[in-house]
């Protein structure tokens, strides 16, 4: 035992003496020219060591180096490809005797790297191998002697590195092909002990910027290196950072994964919090990621995204968001396919599939289904007072402007449709129910396409108010004032609730069929009314004209002709009809019709006139004729005016229409009525004057009086 102890002490003393002799007799600076020559021979670049090379004794024997640089070829942005302010490395001596190379921590401080790509695609990394590569093997070359080649001695060595530390490093990445410039202003990297088949701890911290944004990144992980780099594995991965740009502020993001390897499903979580424009977001994603070794794409299965969105322009802020599904992402070109997709925004839930392709203009395709969508909660109108762009309520009518002039309540602002110009869409949406104010659409279905700022609604259908609605249309957002086209067909709609909702009037009731073909320019409330053009055909069955009782007005006309007061009959102020048809022409801010037909019991009505769409003024004349029947509304009281045309004028406005018997029109140009009045006048004269009634002078005076009355 004593001998062994003496031998060990002798070895230690010998090592110490050897190191001392090495330090005292060998100056490492004398190797600078040799190192520079070997580097130039291997890389074709110049190695410059400005500072001294020295020995270190504590805590381990090693070397130090200061101010060294590997030069770039001429013509690049900086003279140095890589420069280092200081470097240290140490080696354990005793393990060398056992063929083990134990390198202590390798520390580099103040390192700076330049990576530059020129417009022609060449970079400062080209030709780093120099001109020492071996010539290619040819047929004339003698065969290699493999059987007698000794095994390299280095194969028996075990190499361990305690760690690598990079502190206060920086880098500049220039790509002149696209003008990109990225600066890594501060980089700190620690790599733990490098040992075969062992997990390697890594920590990273960096900050940098490019032309438009600043970013930071911090993280840690454990790496299990493999002979093939893409076969390496990660575990305990944690990354975090921030990003600030003019359009996006990512205050914090966190990514965590217990394990990650290529071609293997790896669960991970991602949290992101920040702000875009005036909208703040806070998102959390849990998913299982599979990244292929080709690095061409990634799949995210059982993805679950939750978060909130708040700020200006966000309905129901803060808006609760959620999404679940399976995603497949291709990187070149970027395309995202979402299957078994479920989207949640507040109480709106949609399901289906979608895909997104990113290019010069993003393209989105979708096929989604949902249950109930309440537009009031998204448009901010639920529970609010009626907007200024709608007609005033019946019970409190607003002042009506003169015909041909816009009412002061109409808005004039055009909506911002710029978002339609930077996106392409194609897809379909089906809902069980769509609600807006008191309007309820059942089973609405929509198919649309958006390209080049033009939105094509290829098909729309829904059930509403016991009827059906179908239509198609186009919206072009490219002009300063957007243009639109709309073709719609409604069948079996109940008119009264629609008029009450949209025109705030109860003028008509009944079951309606409508054909509409219109176009226009401008989407403001003012433009929608003043610039719309087109045709509308309306047919209403089994309905009523509210606010006017035409049989009552016929009785009034009868009494007027007899010079009597009409007997009051307590009846509701409405006119029942079996059918009402009308053809309207829209243009110049008005809706005009010369062909309004109303078929009521004992009455036939032909109407014409116009309504001003902006001021909401009404100007219609209904010529009412009594047909040969005393049945129905009005009865025998109106039989006496059979074949007499009785004019009724409708005026006022949508919310307060007025109805009046047009006496002047009643008396003028009515041949039948004139004949009846002439006979009544002759009968009266005969009764009053007796034999004198045949006097020509009296007859002439009476005839002149009647003609003046009917002119």
- Let me know the number of strands: 32
Question: Which stretches are low in confidence, meaning pLDDT under 50 for 5 or more residues running?
Answer: 130-149, 381-411, 630-636
**Overall mean confidence score, pLDDT:** 79
Tally of DSSP helical segments: 9
Major sheet attributes: 32 strands, mixed
The helix-and-strand class reads mainly beta
How would the global form be characterised? rod-shaped
Helix fraction by DSSP (H/I, runs of at least 4):
10-25%
Radius of gyration of CA atoms, rounded to a whole number:
46 Å
Strand content: over 45%
Distance between the termini: 150 Å
GO cellular component, one term: plasma membrane
Domain AsmA: 1-594
Region (Disordered): 124-154, 384-416
Organism: Aeromonas simiae
Could you list some keywords that capture this structure?
711 residues; 32-stranded mixed beta sheet; 9 helices; 15% helix; rod-shaped; AsmA family protein; AsmA; AsmA-related
Task: Walk me through this protein's architecture.
About 8% of the residues have low confidence. The protein has a 32-stranded mixed β-sheet that branches. Helix content is 15%, strand content 49%. The protein is rod-shaped and about 170 Å long. Among the domains are: 153 residues, no CATH class; 193 residues, no CATH class; 34 residues, no CATH class. It comes from Aeromonas simiae.
Please describe the topology of this protein.
Layout: H1 2-25, H2 32-43, E1 47-49, E2 53-56, E3 62-71, E4 80-90, E5 100-109, E6 112-117, E7 158-175, E8 180-191, E9 200-210, E10 214-224, E11 233-244, E12 248-261, E13 266-276, E14 279-291, E15 297-311, E16 319-330, E17 335-345, E18 348-357, E19 363-374, H3 375-379, E20 424-436, E21 439-451, E22 454-464, E23 467-476, E24 483-494, H4 495-502, E25 508-521, H5 525-530, E26 533-546, H6 550-562, E27 574-587, E28 590-600, E29 603-612, E30 618-626, E31 645-652, E32 657-661, H7 663-667, H8 671-689, H9 696-709
Parallel strand pairs: 5-7, 6-7, 19-20
Antiparallel strand pairs: 1-3, 2-3, 3-4, 4-5, 4-6, 7-8, 8-9, 9-10, 10-11, 11-12, 12-13, 13-14, 14-15, 15-16, 16-17, 17-18, 18-19, 20-21, 21-22, 22-23, 23-24, 24-25, 25-26, 26-27, 27-28, 28-29, 29-30, 30-31, 31-32
